[in-house]
Design goal:
By secondary structure, this protein is α/β, with parallel strands linked by helices. Helices cover 40% and strands 17% of the residues. Keywords: Cell membrane, Disulfide bond, Glycoprotein, Ion channel, Ion transport, Ligand-gated ion channel, Membrane, Receptor, Transmembrane, Transmembrane helix, Transport.
Length: 931
């Protein structure tokens, strides 16, 4: 009987043209929320009724609608309709699957694939997303066809925008008109963009926007209906999210202009652009066949799918009656399921009916779609209405194509400027005040500011910087609460903590640190620089004043004694001239000569001719011995005196500071240094308690107790004593107060020493000539930039810092802010222990002695000249012969001296020549020697 019916069908097909009116049985599978598809199919029914020339008549229409949760009920409904149609010998020629996603779509795909029903599906999903159709063979791919709806393609524009603008963060909100289940991973796959995809809460997206903002998201994409876009924009405007660091994108399939309750907002608006080639047809369908509803692109898509599906079914029905092989759901056998030999793909592609919105491109499932274009415009909304619109780009709907940018400058100008909130603490030279800007905001400069600017040039962002409210770097108190910059990061008031922030284990538990950008820096000691007392006559302080007076007294006494011995000794020159008349050196030791002899005897020049008498020579020898001892002692003591003054360094380390009691010392209150010493003292105390518990344990054997008794106190109490001394010295409240206490110190061995961050101390020494850094640094840690825990900024900044390190930019910054710092003191006096010799301040008195001696000599010369020239009243007479009257002078031969005639002699005083010779001789001697 079946063979006879088939032959009859073939004979009738040869003589009659069935294309004039072909009755097609169709099964419609849909879900409750897809009312656009239902309305569009009704318009398609009307279209075929009023266009009989198409040769399509809808026969048995099986319409099954399921909900989004109950797969079993939906499957039972489909099987019931299908089984009934087979029983009535009116099975579906084709299935039109309007289900969108999730349970209805999966159920429909399982049903059609199992029973081998030729199907056109408009479910959402890209290649591989339809799990039930994932393993189709080549024959099945010809009749199980999926065509993605426009709402499944439109979100792909986000990927194109992100790629073209190199966006690193994105917040995507969508409504129920968009299915994003399969796009959570695939939409921005293989793109380095941190993103969140969230369905809009219809009660209000406020909490969603706040959560995204707390995750440092600044680029927002709202995909859905115009009402949804307006709702999100309204909340964002109230939250003051329309600022330069944000970018807003409204993406919709609706037509019309974007709007919101905003006074001044600029957004990117993306919507489909109708193809002018098909506009007239759509208007005709809308007015004549009731193709109504919105969005236009969606209803047009479902209408064209319905028309083309029925036209394709008409084509494939011209072949053999494949529906005769259908089996009911009850007779279904998984091992031998029916596979009809039809090529629905080819039939659908060959349909010549003009589309109402755009052409179809059929490839494999997950890549077939309707072609359309979308315009991206920059819209300015003022007083709730759009006042300006500029086209910036277009996009051809596709899974891989990018934006066609029309106005790149406008896109860049209105894109989100990535603005990070930076908290800092002022510490020279890393961060310093630099006045205020034109908006009356505090500006900063320094090493860290230059560093963040260099990083910004690499990672492309902007920043707002503010100082930590309490001015602290960040420490944890006994209750586990944080302060300073760390607190601002924990509370998410800041994105970055910038400054000379040390990397500490406790801080790493609550924030993330980048790679270090600076060397290891520890804690050190600041003290007042010792200043040795300088004096021009410091060489005189080698001996005490009493010694100098005794030396001076010995000098006068010895000189006087030598004069007395020479005057009264019969063997002296002045008392025995005849004896020493043939000696070459004749020296009469009067009082002046004795003083001169004793003075010059103390010099390398020597005193000259010694006295002739033995007693005088003994006095001279005694004086020489005395002078040798005094000079040798003075020389040795002078060298020792200057050397000891250079070696006067009472404190050279923390241990030296802890061993003395004249110098108080302490760090800043609530500083890292204070925390360090407090915890070190606590550790000593804990270790002692542990050792004590072990030692007092009664269960220990004698051998074990002997091992513990090696040390009476195995843990040093060094830091315990230091901490106690610090508490007694009181902790300064600020760095300025600490420096003031140091400057008030009486000397380097008495006063106050500040223990603090080596950076602070090194900069204070750099900019002051009165301070010095003492000892080596301890508890050294590197400096790094801190970010919120889990923030992607850590990796971005790590890459940037490593690039700067390779380019030696960090070394240049260090050179600029340390060695070339304009505040650096360059004319500080060197300490004695830093010079190669005695300073002029300590030996300059010797030069004064020379000048005083020369001055005295000049005064003496003037006195001598005055005494000789004016005191004696000289007279000038004519030159003549002076005849010396004969006198009876005993000679060596016992005779008399003959009269002497001295030609040319002109006496200055006529009365002088008439005096006896002995008197004249005495007078001349008196003139020549006033002493």
């Amino acid at each position: 009987m079946a063979l006879e019916n088939r032959l009859l069908f073939l004979l009738l097909a040869m003589f009659f043209d069935f294309s004039a009116s072909q009755k097609i049985n169709i099964m419609i599978l849909n879900e409750e929320r897809n009312w656009e598809a239902s309305d569009s199919f009704r318009a398609a029914q009307e279209y075929f009724k009023q266009t009989p020339t198409l040769g399509v008549e809808i026969g048995n229409l099986m319409n099954v609608t399921g909900n989004t949760t109950d797969a079993k009920t939906f499957l039972e409904m489909m099987c019931t309709e299908y089984n009934n149609s087979i029983a009535e010998k009116n099975p579906p020629h084709i299935v039109l699957d309007f289900t969108m996603s999730s349970v209805p779509s999966e159920t429909a795909k399982s049903f059609t694939a199992a029973l081998g029903l030729p199907t056109i599906s408009t479910s959402f999903g890209q290649e591989g997303d339809l799990r039930q159709w994932r393993t189709l063979d080549e024959r099945e791919k010809k009749y199980l066809i999926q065509i993605m709806p426009p709402a499944d393609i439109i979100p792909e524009v986000i990927r194109s925008i992100v790629v073209s603008q190199n966006i690193t963060n994105a917040g995507i909100l969508f409504d129920d008109s968009i299915v994003m289940d399969h796009k959570y991973k695939s939409l921005l796959q293989n793109i380095p963009t941190r993103h969140m995809i969230v369905k809009v809460d219809q009660q209000g997206p406020r909490a969603q926007l706040e959560r995204m903002r707390s995750r440092d998201i600044f680029n927002y994409f709202i995909v859905g209906r115009m009402t949804t876009i307006k709702k999100v924009f309204d909340v964002a405007y109230k939250k003051k999210y329309f600022m330069r660091q944000f970018a807003w994108h409204g993406i919709t399939s609706d037509s019309g202009n974007v709007y919101c309750d905003c006074k001044n907002a600029t957004v990117f608006y993306v919507k489909p652009r109708p193809n002018q080639e098909y506009t007239d047809r759509y208007d005709l369908l809308k007015t004549k066949f009731g193709l109504s509803g919105t969005p236009e692109i969606t209803v047009s898509f479902y209408f064209d799918i319905a028309v083309r599906t029925l036209m394709a079914a008409k084509t494939i029905m011209k072949g053999k009656p494949y529906w005769e092989n259908y089996v009911t759901c009850n007779d279904y056998d998984e091992k031998s399921r029916p596979v009809p030999d039809v090529n629905l793909m080819k039939a659908f592609t060959e349909v010549t009916e003009k589309p109402s919105y755009g052409p179809f491109v059929l490839k494999s499932n997950g890549q077939s779609m309707m072609k359309f274009n979308m315009d991206m415009t920059l819209v300015t909304i003022n007083n709730k209405i759009p006042v300006k619109s500029v086209e910036v780009a277009t996009w051809e709907a596709d899974l891989v194509k990018g934006l066609d940018i029309k106005n790149g400058d406008k896109m860049v100008e209105n894109s989100a400027v990535t603005v990070y909130r930076i908290v800092t603490v002022v510490q020279k030279p890393f961060v310093m005040y630099d006045g205020v800007d034109d908006k009356n905001r505090t500006k900063f400069k320094g090493y860290c500011i230059d560093l963040i600017d260099e990083i910004r040039n690499i990672t492309k962002f902007d920043y707002d910087i503010f100082e930590a409210p309490d001015g602290k770097f960040g420490n944890m108190d006994e209750n586990g609460e944080w302060n300073g910059m760390i607190k601002e990061l924990i509370l998410k008031n800041a994105d970055i903590a910038l400054g000379s922030l040390s990397v500490m284990a406790e801080r790493e538990n609550v924030v993330d640190f980048t790679v270090p950008y600076y060397d290891l820096v520890g804690i050190t000691i600041l003290m007042k620089k010792p200043k040795a007392a300088t004096s021009l006559f410091k060489f005189l302080t080698v001996l005490e004043n009493d010694v100098w007076l005794c030396i001076l007294a010995a000098y006068f006494f010895t000189s006087f004694l030598m004069w007395v011995f020479d005057r009264w000794s019969p063997y002296s020159y002045q008392n025995n001239r005849e004896k020493y008349k043939d000696d070459e050196e004749k020296r009469e030791f009067n009082l002046k000569e004795c003083l001169w002899f004793c003075m010059t005897s103390l010099t390398p020049q020597g005193g000259g001719e010694a006295p002739k008498n033995l007693s005088g020579r003994l006095v001279a020898a005694t004086w020489w011995l005395f002078g040798f001892i005094i000079i040798a002692s003075y020389t040795a003591n002078l060298a020792a005196f200057l050397t000891v003054s250079r070696l006067d360094t009472p404190v050279e380390s923390l241990d030296d500071l802890a061993k003395q009691y004249k110098i108080q010392y302490a760090p800043l209150a609530n500083s890292s240094a204070q925390t360090y010493f407090q915890r070190m003292a606590d550790i000593e105390s804990r270790f002692y308690e542990i050792w004590k518990d072990m030692s007092l344990n009664d269960s220990l054997t004698d051998v074990e107790r002997a091992k513990l008794a090696v040390w009476d106190y195995p843990v040093s109490d060094k830091y315990t004593k230091i901490w106690q001394a610090m508490k007694e010295a009181k902790f300064p409240d600020s760095l300025e107060a600490a420096v003031a206490r140091v400057m008030e110190s009486k000397s380097s061995s008495e006063g106050f020493a500040f223990i603090g961050d080596a950076t602070d101390i090194r900069y204070l020494v750099l900019t002051s000539c009165d301070l010095q850094m003492v000892g080596e640094e301890f508890s050294r840690k590197p400096y790094a930039i801190a970010t919120q825990q889990g923030s992607p900024l850590k990796d971005q900044f790590n890459n940037a810092i490593l690039q700067l390190l390779n380019k030696r930019k960090l070394e240049k910054l260090k050179e600029q802010w340390w060695n070339q710092n304009p505040e650096k003191k360059r004319n500080c006096e060197k300490q004695d222990d830093q010079t190669d010799g005695i300073s002029i301040q300590n030996i300059g008195g010797v030069f004064i002695v020379i000048f005083v001696g020369i001055g005295l000599a000049c005064i003496t010369l003037a006195f001598e000249y005055w005494w000789y020239r004016f005191k004696r009243n000289p007279q000038v007479v004519d030159t003549g012969n002076v005849v010396v009257q004969p006198r009876t002078i005993p000679t060596a031969g016992g005779g008399k001296m003959d009269p002497l005639t001295m030609p040319g002699f002109r006496p200055r005083n006529t009365g002088f020549s008439e005096r006896p010779f002995t008197q004249r001789n005495a007078a001349l001697a008196a003139v020549n020697n006033p002493w």
